[in-house]
Amino acid sequence: MGHLDHATFGWLTPALSYAMACTGAALGLRCTVRALAATGRARRNWLITAASAIGTGIWTMHFVAMLGFGVSGTDIRYDVPLTVLSLIVAMAVVCAGVFAVGYSRDRGRALLLGGLTTGLGVASMHYLGMAAVRLHGEVRYDPALVALSVVIAVAAATAALWAALNITSPIAVTVASLVMGLAVSSMHYTGMFAVDVRVTPSDAVLPGATAMQFIFPLAVGLGSYLFLTSAFVALSPTTGESEASASAQRPVVGAATTY
């Protein structure tokens, strides 16, 4: 049996992955708050931004954490198509959950359905990502810990969507984001502790890409997207500020037309 190390770089990857999860959550909550205050195309666009932020945050959290994953006695490679598929799944299910909440008339039912859909999607993304791992040996899972990780994912997703509906103040959003980041990280490491690897030593070349060849550049790119979008959202005016600005300009326009 190979010795599993979940933090080969020490606290760097867990801390960085937690920061990514919190950033995605904060941006997603902020965008959902904006979406619920908007209508029409603006609401749809804010919801898409929220879903992409949360999905990106969760996926980046998972694979930044995976940069610190190592097994003694074998190299590790990643199947590129499966890894990309896990990103698409993360985006799609979070989008479905966020839109269910954003457009539903029955908020309670939407919350349960959206939380269940998004939670199962997050768990699917995690285990698809794990299925993309290539190593010399056999990967097994503890069913009880896998089930616990899915329950944590559903609970975290439901709490996130509840927060998106009920929390509006910046301080509350920050606190909710830190809690959500912790929940997503807990789900990830619970799923990782469910893993047991039986190594079969071999000199054969493993298929796929190394973490530094593929995972690291993709995580850096998605992380940059998160931080740039966060800056854009932070600097863009809220609906209330836009209306105040428009109403402040109206008398000036009216005064100009009286001459």
Task: Write a short abstract of this structure.
This protein is mostly helical.
Description:
The protein has 259 residues and is mostly helical. It has 8 helices and 6 strands; from the N terminus they run βααββααββααβαα. It has helices spanning 12-37, 40-66, 80-103, 107-131, 143-166, 170-193, 211-235, 239-257; strands at 4-5, 70-71, 76-78, 133-135, 137-141, 195-199. The strands form 3 sheets. It has a two-stranded antiparallel ribbon. Helix 1 (12-37) runs antiparallel to helix 2, helix 1 packs parallel to helix 7 (211-235) and helix 5 (143-166) runs antiparallel to helix 6 (170-193). The longest helix has 27 residues, at 40-66.
Count of β-strands:
6
| Strands in their spatial order, largest beta sheet | 1-2
Helical residue percent? over 70%
Integer tally of domains: 1
Structural Rg:
21 Å
The low-confidence runs, each spanning 5 or more residues with pLDDT under 50, are 244-249, 251-259
| Class per helix and strand makeup | mainly alpha
Strand coverage percent: 5-15%
What oligomeric state do these chains adopt?
single chain
Outline, from the CA principal axes?
Answer: elongated
The biggest beta sheet reads: 2 strands, antiparallel
Taken in chain order, the helices and strands follow as EHHEEHHEEHHEHH
**Number of helical regions:** 8
Gap between N and C termini: 87 Å
Produce the secondary structure layout:
Blueprint (H helix, E strand, L loop, with lengths): L3 E2 L6 H26 L2 H27 L3 E2 L4 E3 L1 H24 L3 H25 L1 E3 L1 E5 L1 H24 L3 H24 L1 E5 L11 H25 L3 H19 L2
Antiparallel strand pairs: 1-2, 3-4, 5-6
Helix pairs in contact: 1-2, 1-5, 1-6, 1-7, 2-3, 2-4, 2-7, 3-4, 4-5, 5-6
